[in-house]
Amino acid sequence: MRIELEKRPGGSRLFSFVSPLLALLLTVVCGGVMFALLGKDPVSALYSFFIEPLQEVWSLHELAIKAGPLILIAVGLSVCYRSNNWNIGAEGQFTMGAIAGSFLPIVFYEWHSPLILPLMLVMGMLGGALYAGIPALLKAHFNTNEILTSLMLVYIAQLFLDWLSRGMWRDPQGYNFPQSRNFVPEAILPEVLSSGRAHWGFVFAIVAAVLVWFMMRFTLKGFQITVLGQSERAGRFAGFSSRGMIWFSMLFSGALAGLAGISEVSGSINHLQPSISPGYGFTAIIVAFLGRLNPLGIIASGLVLALTYLGGEAVQLSLEVSDKVTRVFQGLLLFFVLSCDTLIHYRIRLVFDRLKGESDGAA
Hints:
Strand content: under 5%
Distance between the termini: 21 Å
Strand order of the largest sheet: 1-2
Radius of gyration: 23 Å
Mean pLDDT: 91
Structural class: mainly alpha
Number of helices: 15
């Protein structure tokens, strides 16, 4: 006996809409079971995880800070995935964008000008795009698997950041701490409201999501992405370049990841240090699929995943559980999203093989 997946003749539109909600519900149920196994009250633990972080104004600002990079990166990844190009290295592009954008305020730390912040944002986008161009080049011209190359480049970017923070760019007046000079005020991304720390990175994310939604729905480029993603052969018949789409989708997603990186460093941290991300680039993959690769849906899913970061910190303090709880919730959510999507498009079928002896006799 073996288990096979048989493609359904047509997927249900209703279940396609409901499946992210079902995946979230199943994640909450399994999370409650996990807390019970840890010896904690599931109801109070889930309340601390999902409700408590939303009760204070400062928590809402922290939610926006964490949701901004998730939404920005996931919007770029949605373009990649819908074109059938699998960029898994957004974490590295996020890091390289932060490094490239931080060049001006660190190397030219005495420069005070209103131009410095716009130039930082542009350089951050270029840094992320150029780093994403490496797996794009390898796939477009050497048919290399972009999943492996983009993922391996993440570790190079992180080690490069660590080397800069502890070496060339370390603050000479920082008492030997592994971090760069603090950015000058002109290089810091301003806050959106005076009531908290939320900065313009969240606004960039919302604007990018709306613009990409418009591109995917109403422009020729969006049509090309959809056609080539569903059938490369059909796209070639229509005159669309699959190689050109590799370059466009990878560079575009890398640019948004780089913008997220420099926005995070400039708006939240204000200097470079060995660790600037809790894993935004990898979590954004979950955000993209939970949002059904729709930029507007990604806004909602980005807020949900940002809440898991805040909830993980809350239960770590109030219930004294491991900080790995956040990763467990995110992993469960991705598992259930993919499982629900699989069952929408395929049905499970049990196949009973005949005994080998009977088969030989029949032959």
